[in-house]
Amino acid sequence: DSTYILEFSSDESCNLNLDVNTCIGHYEIPDKGSIRFQTMACTEICCDAEFAGDLTSLFPKMTSYYVRENKLHLEGEGEIILQSY
Question: Which tens digits make up the pLDDT trace of 11-30?
Fold first, then answer.
C-alpha cells in the first residue's frame, strides 16, 4: 500500500524513496529500449517493508524499458511497472 518514488536525473543517477529510507543508484541507456542499473545503495533498510528490500534488488536485473499508458515498464528477470505522476 506504500508509494515508492523513483526519480531519474540527466546525470544518469536515480533516487528511490521507500517507506522510510532512500536509495541512490546509477543507470545507463546504451540503446533505445535498453537500460542497465547498478546496484543501489540504501540507508538502513531495516525499517522498510520487506517488499521494499526485494524491490531494490530487482533494478539491476532489469534490461529493457518501454512506456505505455503513462506507465514505465522495466523488464528483465521479472518486471517492474511504475506509474508516472
Answer: 999 999 998 899 999 999 99
Residue 84 sits at the vertex; the CA angle it makes with 80 and 26, to the nearest 5 degrees, is 60
DSSP structure string for 19-65 = SS-EEEEEEE--STTB-EEPPPEES-GGGS-HHHHHHHHHGGGEEEE
Contact indicator for 78, 61 with CB cutoff of 8 Å: yes
Q: What 8-state DSSP symbol labels residue 74?
A: E
pTM passes above 0.70:
yes
Give strand pairing partners of 26: 13
Tens digit of pLDDT for each residue in 58-80? 999 999 999 999 999 999 999 99
